[in-house]
What does this fold into?
Amino acid sequence: MIFHDYYSDIPRAEVDRFVRSQELARLVTVGDDSTPHIGLYPFVYDGNSADLHLVRADEQIKDLKARPRCVLEVDEVLAVIPSYWVHAEYGGAATAYHQTVILECEAKVEEDPAAVAAQQERLLARYQPEGGFRALDPGDPLYRGAMAQLAAVKLTIIRWRAKFKLGQNRPAEARRRVIAELRKRGRPSDGRAADALQWTIDSAEDGGTTR
It folds into this structure.
């Protein structure tokens, strides 16, 4: 992936906001034979680290125990547009809009049931804040079996990179035309794409850094 400045010069606060807005992240690890392995997981993010859990028998747990360096990737695919929205003849103007954050991490794997239960509580606090479940006591027969099968993974973030590809290489007027076309087309994610492109225009007009 190429990280041109106009796509990757994103304020840290905006990166944090985006990561927290997403419900699933991709964990990328490397196997013994150098084959990459990818898993999609719920996660908790605090800006410096991320928490997620895997089944102990998962191949990615084996990877992380041998090679703790890994990547957590969060993205949102917004829209693919036809070339003629940008240029009447040039087919190369067709493009895709997306937001992507890549977190390079160092992993720590814990299998102690108390550590697993504590992490599950953090995940439930994010995804099910209304409650509706019995307290996560690893000694409780209701939970004992699951706690014996899960591993808690703590990812300490070493470096982050972001690419918010939202038409920043085009003049504001060209982006406004695309925004109008997105709103007219009305596919499920077109409204979010239009809002994201509008953000780049508004931020530049306010003197801020665009996505």
